[in-house]
Design goal:
This protein is mainly alpha-helical and 330 residues long. The protein has one domain. The chain has 14 helices and two strands, in the order H-H-H-H-H-H-H-E-E-H-H-H-H-H-H-H. Strands 1-2 form a two-stranded antiparallel sheet. Helix 3 runs parallel beside helix 8 and helix 3 packs across helix 13.
Length: 330
Amino acid sequence: MSEEKHISKAFQILKKGAIYFVLVFLVIGIGIIESSFLSVNNLTNILRISSVRVIIALGVGCILITRGTDLSSGRIVGLCACVAASIMQRSEYAYKMYPNLPELSLLIPFIAVICIGITIGIANGVIISTFSIPPFIATLGMMIIVWGVSSIYTNAQPIGGLRDDFTALATGNTLMIPNLLIFATITMLLIWFLLNKTVLGKYIYAIGGNPQAALVSGINVKFTVIKTYAFAGMLYGIAGLLLAARTGGATNNYATSYELDAIAACTIGGVSTAGGIGRVSGIITGVLIFEVLNNGLVILGVSAYWQQIIKGIIIIAAIAFDMRKYITKK
């Protein structure tokens, strides 16, 4: 009997930690096949790229926990990247978008993208909660609108010539730690605190678990949904700024399909599409699995077309497994 309990306990531990084992297996497996994958430069590069995606995924994750979704997140990131880049160009750059714009403080683009992200997030939340439009449809429409705004704003032209102090926000280091990793860590801690230690976090889980019960218990469901989308929008704005700083420019097509990658990473990381379930650690691990897989497939020379097929299979499998757990639980 004791042995059966130990086996059962070991199985439960393995089940709960499966995602972490998958990440370790991928890193070791790809490293064995191609040793250059485990180089310090390559692993640092994975962390830098993952940092921006983690910030996006954490915003999307909060929304998924409320039983919502956000297909506009990638386009919001792209728009904010364009806005931040346009006001952070070097004064001597020949193709400066605003030739008469003086050199502004680094605080200005942060304020700009946060305001843009929150505004669009509020719009999403209001449309969904007030008009009872399904989140998938509402954010799909917003995705198209934001892409149109971004294309008009940039005239579909790339924005380059960014200031060194701006790009250093994403490419530089502080005490030998990549700045992007610092931004991502601060965001992780902030979201963990929000979800686990605040009233808003409890409301987010309650709404995702059972919206009707949350409403009956006195929770202002509409206002909470709006706040959640607004908070996620703020994260998208910051992610867009950091993406522009990391790449040294921006275009209207920036962050295309980032929203799908974020949703997939959250689902793989244990955030239920049925709502009410999700942890910050799982979201982070889900993002890392995707980035390790992307990087590894490139290093192994796998065709870009096959990469998309593999990612698609993983997304379908993760969501199917999640829905299976939900149906079983019901």
